[in-house]
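REQUEST FORM: STRUCTURE PREDICTION
Request ID: SP-0412
Submitted by: Lab K.M.
Chain count: 1
Length (residues): 265
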Amino acid sequence: MSPFSADWLALREPADARARSRPLAVAAAAALARRPGAVRAIDLATGTGSNVRYLAGLLPATLAWLLVDADADLLRTLPSRLPGVPVDILRTDLSQLDDPALFEGRDLVTASALLDLVSDRWVASLAEVCARVDAIVLLTLSYDGRILMTPEEPEDALVRDLVNQHQRGDKGFGPALGPAAAASAATHFIRHGYRVDRASSDWVLDSTDSELQRQLIEGWAQAAVEIDPAQADAVDRWQMARLSHVDTGRSQLVVGHEDVLAFRE
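STATUS: Completed
RESULT:
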């Protein structure tokens, strides 16, 4: 499932690349290098392929990818977005991980900005299928519930709490984990005998990220009002103040994310 537009995915890609834990990606590459023979990977909910673009310079050049998403329009653009990267492309619904052939023979399973959208049951299924094929697993940029805003506004905590409630709504995979995503992944993969390493991958946004900040603020305001319409006036005041900070170049946002690497030693 890819509920986001190509424009949004392009807008966030530079922030994603800055935020990601390079040490975890390098550790995944090192674990992969110990595998004999050709190596095969799958990227879940690949979108525009940003995860593969980030990893392409770190992982073996011979790595063959299967890129999976439900959005046919996004998938159609992937060959031109990933020149020189050997990829197969598959359109499929990932709401149920009930096709064992997806993971068969995969040495590496990756996903970016997906884990906080899925349910605990979905993560349990993912851990089970990954353990069955002994795959290395790298799950990045999972939102962890932290939003720090400068300059501060009186409604910051209210909006953040409402946004975090919204994050737990069903995004097509059952009740979403939202801020509990990384902890859920750690629990389920450890249960299957994996070592799990976690690292912060926070977005740190300043005046050079003004359009990304603007879209985040507008999206958060909409989500907050959906959760509690009675707070619409307070949220509107907050949105106007925060957008004013963006317009004057004063706004700074830190959006908490976490990367997770799971592998068997």
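NOTES: The longest strand covers residues 136-150.
Reviewed by: T.R.
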